[in-house]
């Protein structure tokens, strides 16, 4: 691309494309015609008034006398006076008028004759009288448009300036005649032995001020007739030339259209205006064009290399716009830099680079697809994959293969995500440096307050800040990064058991994850909630203790009684013996019954049904009536306010729970006391609920025992040997499984009040 840029820059443009741009720039920079340049036109109206062309030379002499009297700054007569006119003394009159004016320039026309190129010069008398001569040739480019001139042309060793330049020089000649007039006088006899080659010097571009009709143009006849006052031409450049069709030479220029042309005198007016305004459009040198094209191409190549395709496209368009702006700016400064080569290079760099980039990408993706096809599990392959690739061209096949690879990648990613989310434990995927890469749904729920979904990834220390510090590693105090990611022999898994701020117990496992080549990829950290497992282990130990101690005690008592009864000296009376046996058996049955009910309360199989709370409380009180009556205790039920409160509960379990509370109240209340069971509804914005208070007048519970009153296998009164502390644990389990709460308030020596709150479905 750089070599091509140098070659196009050396050619200094792309021909017609640059000519088109140049012409439009010329049109865009047209300016007002100067007031001191006037064209006296030999137009159709003048020919109709003065007769057919050519006119008598006394007519031109009369025009020159008018311009001389008006003191015109300079006169350029674009009329060929190469042959004598045998009418009276017309030639003498014109020669005299030329001599009197002193600032008139006549044209030189170089024509091809049988003898070769020869200059067609004015008559010697006119040459001697004129201020100077100027060639009237224009340079034509490949499309036939006049864009430039040679300021000097040489033939047979004689030089002539351009016609407009000669007029400009005549205006500043201080009444001195141009030297080229005398040198031309000997041209007729100086041709022998000279090279028949026309040479031009100082090629210049014409700074067109405007198109046809842009300059002040006055009809020839209007000047002769005095319609235009002579003072109008004072201190002005006057160009006299033909504009009438048939006698005027017309040319295509940048400021003309396909349907019009510009006369030679108007082109000379534009050239003269440029000389007056000191405008000179120069063309950039080859090295400048090469540098301009090369720099533009280099920037486009760098954009494609270091920017994304979209960014490179934007920069390519920006460079094309910048080249256009620079070209326009340089043209305003009268420097023409052909931009089409630079624009072309900038424009073609992007598609060529994109093609090469696409080829490389397709080749790479083809290799990766083949590799992926070998390693993808069959479960992730689709049955119609092969069908999609057939019956298509190469690009379609590559796109189909990429689409299949992308689908497999997405399927694999979804497969990993689904498996990660299906894990029952919170799982984190960390990089080798401890940065969080992935996490599952359980981790998001557990660590939600740490902002795992935010753009800023939390640190490992922040994630594990809610856990107790990990155990020491070796002899140093460790942090979580060192504890979880430290290198073990063979990078084996690490297991740490700890607690969080909610006293939950967790087993944290950190296992290495490796890439296909065996190198380390990162770490997979699992947080296993073992709170229930540890609680179950403790419950198992308590159950074993219960079975080995509390349930064995009554059985051991029965065996001891039997041993004593066999010995006549220690035997009890039969009624007393049976009473003791009966009491031990009842104790065993009660213990077993409490244990079974607690296990049922902890199970998942509740038989829910809609029932009113007042009937539940009444039935529980009826069940405890005989027990209360035996101790002369009265149970007062006040539940008329909750007659319309319906609950969705397991009726038998809830009656049993209420019965346990009443049984404890009766057991620890003195004879003749009263137990009050009251219930009332409560309505809030979140719904309705029923609150039940069961109050006794027993000895109360100490503050130290209140904290663990609902724990299983705990007795609030160690003197009570009829139970093992399962009753209140059962009550708490049943109430909480029904989305309720239970609280207790107690004063030692005055009694206790248990408060149950349960949500209503109707009420």
Which short descriptors sum up this protein?
763 residues; alpha/beta; 6 domains; 7-stranded mixed β-sheet; 5-stranded antiparallel β-sheet; 27 strands; rod-shaped; Sig_transdc_His_kin_CHASE2; HisK_dim/P_dom
Account of the protein in words:
It holds the Pfam family CHASE2. Residues 546-762 form the Histidine kinase domain. It catalyses: ATP + protein L-histidine = ADP + protein N-phospho-L-histidine. With 763 residues, this protein is an alpha/beta fold. It folds into 6 domains: 2-13 and 283-361, no CATH class; 35-276, no CATH class; 376-419, no CATH class; 423-529, PAS domain (Beta-Lactamase), CATH 3.30.450.20; 534-601, Helix Hairpins; 606-759, Histidine kinase-like ATPase, C-terminal domain (Heat Shock Protein 90). 44% of the residues lie in helices and 21% in strands. The chain contains 26 helices and 27 strands. Strands 1, 2, 3, 4, 5, 10 and 11 form a 7-stranded mixed beta sheet that branches. A 5-stranded antiparallel beta sheet has the order 17-16-20-19-18. A hairpin with a 2-residue loop joins β7 (146-155) and β8 (158-161). α1 (2-10) packs antiparallel against α11 and α22 crosses α24. The longest helix has 36 residues, at 340-375. It starts with a helix and ends with a strand. Residues 185-195 and 718-724 have low confidence and may be disordered.
């Amino acid at each position: 691309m750089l070599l091509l840029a140098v070659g196009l820059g050396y050619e200094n443009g792309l021909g017609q494309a640059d000519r088109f741009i140049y012409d439009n720039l010329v049109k865009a920079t047209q300016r007002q015609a100067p007031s001191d340049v006037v064209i006296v036109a030999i137009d159709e109206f003048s020919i109709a008034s003065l007769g057919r062309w050519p006119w008598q030379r006394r007519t031109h002499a009369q025009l020159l006398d008018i311009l001389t009297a008006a003191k015109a700054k300079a006169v350029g007569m674009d009329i060929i006076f190469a042959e004598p006119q045998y009418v009276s003394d017309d030639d003498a009159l014109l020669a005299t008028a030329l001599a009197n004016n002193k600032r008139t320039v006549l044209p030189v026309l170089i024509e091809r004759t049988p003898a070769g190129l020869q200059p067609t010069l004015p008559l010697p008398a006119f040459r001697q009288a004129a201020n100077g001569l100027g060639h009237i040739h224009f340079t034509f480019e490949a499309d036939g448009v006049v864009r430039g001139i040679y300021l000097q042309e040489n033939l047979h060793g004689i030089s002539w300036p351009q016609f407009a330049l000669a007029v400009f020089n005549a205006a500043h000649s201080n009444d001195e005649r141009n030297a080229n007039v005398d040198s031309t006088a000997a041209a007729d006899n100086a041709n022998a032995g000279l090279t028949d080659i026309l040479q031009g010097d100082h090629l210049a571009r014409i700074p067109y001020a405007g198109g046809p009709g842009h300059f002040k143009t006055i009809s020839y006849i209007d000047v002769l007739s005095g319609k235009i006052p002579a003072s109008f031409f004072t201190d002005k450049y006057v160009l006299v030339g033909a504009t009438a069709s048939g006698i005027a030479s017309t040319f295509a220029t940048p400021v003309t259209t396909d349907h019009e042309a510009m006369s030679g005198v108007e082109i000379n007016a534009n050239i003269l205006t440029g000389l007056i305004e000191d405008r000179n459009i120069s063309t950039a040198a080859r090295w400048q064009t090469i540098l301009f094209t090369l720099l533009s191409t280099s920037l486009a190549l760098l954009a494609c290399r270091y920017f994304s395709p979209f960014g490179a496209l934007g920069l390519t368009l920006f460079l094309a716009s910048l080249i256009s702006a620079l070209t326009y700016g340089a043209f305003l400064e009268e420097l023409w830099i052909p931009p089409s080569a630079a624009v072309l290079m900038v424009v073609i760099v992007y598609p060529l680079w994109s093609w090469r980039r696409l080829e490389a990408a397709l080749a790479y993706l083809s290799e990766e697809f083949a590799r992926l096809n070998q390693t993808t599990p069959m479960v992730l392959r689709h049955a119609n994959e092969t069908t999609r690739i057939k019956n298509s061209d190469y690009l379609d096949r590559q796109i189909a293969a990429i689409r299949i690879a992308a689908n497999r990648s997405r399927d694999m990613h979804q497969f990993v995500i689904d498996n990660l989310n299906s894990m029952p434990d919170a799982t984190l995927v960390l990089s080798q440096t401890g940065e969080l890469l992935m996490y599952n749904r359980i981790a998001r729920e557990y660590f939600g307050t740490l902002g795992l979904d935010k753009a800023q990834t939390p640190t490992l220390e922040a994630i594990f800040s809610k856990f107790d510090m990990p155990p020491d590693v070796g002899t140093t105090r460790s942090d979580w990064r060192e504890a979880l990611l430290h290198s073990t022999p063979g990078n084996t898994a690490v297991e740490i058991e700890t607690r969080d701020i909610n006293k939950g117990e967790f087993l944290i496992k950190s296992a290495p994850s490796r890439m296909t080549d065996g190198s380390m990829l990162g770490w997979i950290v699992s947080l296993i909630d073992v709170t229930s497992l540890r609680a179950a282990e403790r419950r198992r130990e308590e159950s074993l203790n219960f079975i080995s101690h509390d349930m064995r005690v009554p059985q051991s008592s029965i065996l001891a009684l039997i041993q004593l009864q066999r010995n006549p000296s220690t035997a009890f009376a039969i009624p007393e013996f049976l009473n003791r046996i009966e009491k031990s058996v009842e104790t065993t049955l009660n213990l077993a019954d409490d244990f079974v009910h607690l296990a049922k309360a902890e199970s998942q199989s509740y038989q829910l049904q809609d029932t009113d709370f007042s009937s539940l409380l009444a039935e529980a009180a009826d069940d405890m009536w005989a027990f209360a009556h035996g101790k002369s205790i009265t149970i007062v039920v006040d539940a008329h306010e909750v007659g319309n409160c319906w609950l969705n509960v397991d009726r038998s379990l809830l009656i049993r729970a209420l019965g346990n509370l009443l049984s404890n109240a009766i057991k620890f209340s003195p004879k003749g006391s009263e137990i009050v069971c009251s219930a009332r509804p409560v309505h809030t914005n979140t719904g309705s609920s029923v609150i039940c208070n069961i109050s006794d007048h027993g000895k109360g519970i100490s503050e130290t025992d209140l904290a663990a009153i609902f724990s299983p296998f705990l007795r609030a009164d160690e003197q009570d040997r009829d139970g093992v502390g399962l009753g209140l644990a059962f009550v708490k389990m049943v109430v909480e499984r029904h989305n309720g709460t239970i609280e207790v308030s107690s004063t030692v020596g005055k009694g206790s009040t248990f408060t149950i709150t349960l949500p209503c479905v109707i009420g």
